[in-house]
Amino acid sequence: MTAPPADVITSARTDAALAVRGLHVDFDGPAGPVPAVRGVDLTLRRGEVLGLVGESGSGKSTVALAAMGLLPRTARVRGSVLAGGTEVLGAGEKALSRLRGRRIAMVFQDPLSALTPVHRVGDQIAEAVRTHQDTGRDQARRRAVELLDLVGIPDPERRARAYPHEFSGGMRQRAMIAMAVANAPDVILADEPTTALDVTVQAQILDVLRTAQRETGAALLLVSHDLGVIAGMADRVAVMYAGRVVESAPADELFAAPRMPYTIGLLGAVPRPDTDGRPLTPVPGSPPDLRLLTGGCPFAPRCPLADEACAADEPALAGTGGHVAACVKTPGPEPYPVPEPLPPARAADAARDELPPVLRVQGLAKTFPVLKGGVFRRRVGSVYAVDGVDLDIRKGETLGLVGESGSGKSTALMEILRLAAPEAGEIELLGRPVAALTRREAHALRGSVQIVFQDPMASLDPRMPVGEIVAEPLRAQGRGRAAVAGRVPELLELVGLEAGHAGRFPHEFSGGQRQRIGIARALAVEPELLVLDEPVSALDVSVQAGVLNLLQRLKHELRLAYLFVSHDLAVVRHVADRVSVMYLGRTVETGPVGEVFARPRHPYTQALLSAVPVPDPARERARERILLAGDPPSPVVRDEGCRFRGRCVLYAGLGSAERSRCEGLRPGARESGAGHVVACHFA
Length: 683
Prior knowledge:
alpha/beta; Rossmann fold; eight-stranded mixed beta sheet; 23 helices; 31% helix; Oligopep_ABC_C; nucleotide-binding; transport
């Protein structure tokens, strides 16, 4: 398209707050243009929420950046983006500066990168106000304080004088939302605004977005990979695949009756906190390389319903009643194949007390020094990272360990994996106290517990072929060359890879395949306990489903015990037999996963579970939420009372006598039936 003069934005008649027509985006590459968006049409009306979903690389964020005119110079853009009737594409920097913040505003995924670190938060918001409004400096600062108060930041006047690094992640995102709504824009673009946040903070941010949209009347384009978030927020949903919209419908209709097999697969791959461990429906394969598309449906190589008709031409969006899908089989009579459920876990065949213990942790504590001084550093305090953790895992059992960031989950894992005497408390592995182990005994026992890390690429040596990576633990245990050569192909096939993949390097695999390699490496020495530290948090939901199904199958076949650490409670509900909840270094509730999720006793657990989004619009919007106030207290202060009371809804309603008990007495763990233990005076 022909660009207008650099300082001019052209106008056109439209009733939409945002209208995207025929948007194409290519990026310059060494071998020529690389397509990212291929003919996207979107319409967003004032006051409406449109959810944009799809796997990584589908083009969601590129669409949002194009709508803001923020694509890099290496991007070649065609089509039209009208924001309130004014053309964005081709506009110059001066014109875009007048448009951004006034007509259209954006909330980015990483607020720390979006905020300038050397300027106070209030000054940055005031600058956004003064850019578009004829107002004085003092009035703009007062407006910044009002906006911080609007988005729920406590003591906004003091916080306005703080720098971004002094804010928590959730508070930084609130500040970004305050900046976005400062000039009452017509459109708010939110690009994965809750991805890096805990579920409790995510609930707060979504509530703030709702408030901000209600106060401004703006339209909201919400880009997210979390279908539960989309179910609770969106009026309409557009699903993207291979740079195109492949299905669009009102949210209720799309979740109840999806038509495109890709959408069906995405919804089937999502673990739900309100169901048991049914097999998930992974979407096989990987998204296509858009440079190599030759015609036909781009999803056909991954589609279990594809036939010859799908290879002829790329289907266009078609349908009635506002529900359109790009599929020649829509609506088709063929059911989408669902994996067969596994037989009941062996751990359930016997009473839990009769199963051999694998890991027992009692009263675990770990502190870190707070040092002060330059040349001569001295200890001036302690960080109480872990301050009373209890865990119990039996053979063939999965224990889910959950809690907010900073609750001490990772520190507890490291203490367990050290196989050394803890600072305080007891750790027993396979019935043996680790404090009594000699160095040789600890080395021999180390093969019994292995770990799978969060980031599969960071945990695999990029210079080593996969076969060598998998073989490394075997060689560390002194296995012979012939035994190693025979074991590596078995392990690769066990996790769903081919034996011929042993000669490839990690960068040649997808994210899900790399995580399977990490699992194969952990299984090499036949451990009794597998520690899984956020093993699927870096994966798309479609890939995540395949890894979770694999873990369930391996647990059943090998009778493994898992310690599964995750911030995603829906995933924990899917994989775990029991769950243990941590808050600020302490275990506050433990029990069978079905019992804890159905009848949580501790106020913190209740708040966590109420914040977990459900991919069902009707249920998600009808649920009651418990929004936690503020952030957890500093772990530097060791409070002898209940450490949760400052955020506890139950504590707020107690009388003075009951409150003094919470303030001065640490709650002890007490049984509430069926192995359900809770540490709360008034649970």
